[in-house]
Each structure stands twice: as structure tokens, then as C-alpha cells.
Specification:
Blueprint lengths: L1 H17 L4 H7 E9 L17 H14 E14 L2 E12 L5 E13 L2 E9 L2 H7 L2
Parallel strand pairs: 1-5
Antiparallel strand pairs: 2-3, 3-4, 4-5
Helix pairs in contact: 1-2
């Protein structure tokens, strides 16, 4: 299972360094039947992107759709916890809203599940309040 952790760390490093240009790294990591879920399962204004996605292509569209409204300031994973086929990642990040210029800084927890060397599930939890405040003129 160390291989899953190594690949996931590399994907986060690419995301941090390249943002939307890291698409090939993520495409390679995710299984075709990959599912992503946000903690509340519904989208609030300014975070419409945070809804469940039921395939790799939908998940990749979600990740890159973030950049329609936001610019990444930083994405800094600082804790990885791995046990069996599951990996928890705790990160700090900040995004600038393109319309308002305001920055939303928050913590995010990503809970991953792998099967046969590919990610099949991600549950994410983050505080939407900073994003809502940054998106408000």
C-alpha cells in the first residue's frame, strides 16, 4: 500500500505546483469508476463545484472547474495517514475569487480509498464559509 501513498503524494505535489496543468497526473491516479463526495452532498452558492461526482471524467471536470471562478494561491498537504487501502490527507489551502479578488483560506480533509493501485473514492470535508465570504462583493 506504500505505492498508493507515494502516487498520491506525487499527485498532490503536482496539484500544488501546476494547478490545472496537473490533469494527466490525476487522470492516471483515478479509476474509471472513481467517486467523489463533498461532506454535505449539496452545493452552496460560490461552491457549486462541491457536489458528488460519479466517474473519473466528472471528478476531473470538478477539479478543473474550480479554476473557472478561483485561482489557487497555495495547496499545502501537511499530514498523510495511510492504513490498508485508505489514506487521509489534511491540507491547508487558499484560493482567490476571480470576480472579487478576495482570498479564501481554509483547511481541507480528503479521505481516499484505493483498489488495485487506483483511487476509487474520495470524501472531502472543508469549511465553505471562507469561500462564501470571498465570493461576496
Amino acid at each position: 500500500m506504500q505505492k498508493n501513498l507515494t502516487r498520491l503524494k506525487a499527485a498532490y505535489a503536482a496539484w500544488s505546483a501546476q494547478g490545472p496543468n496537473a490533469l494527466p497526473v490525476w487522470r492516471d491516479l483515478l479509476a474509471d469508476d472513481f467517486v467523489i463526495r463533498s461532506v454535505d452532498g449539496k452545493a452552496a452558492p460560490a461552491v457549486e463545484f462541491a457536489v458528488a461526482k460519479g466517474s473519473r471524467d466528472e471528478a476531473l471536470a470538478y477539479l478543473w472547474g474550480i479554476f473557472d471562478q478561483w485561482d489557487m494561491v497555495h495547496y499545502t498537504p501537511d499530514v498523510f495517514v495511510s492504513e490498508g487501502d485508505r489514506i487521509a490527507v489534511f491540507s491547508g489551502c487558499a484560493f482567490r475569487n476571480k470576480a472579487t479578488g478576495k482570498v479564501a483560506e481554509f483547511r481541507i480533509a480528503n479521505l481516499w480509498r484505493f483498489r488495485d493501485g487506483r483511487a476509487v473514492e474520495l470524501a472531502e470535508a472543508f469549511d465553505t464559509a471562507p469561500a462564501l465570504q470571498a465570493a461576496t462583493p
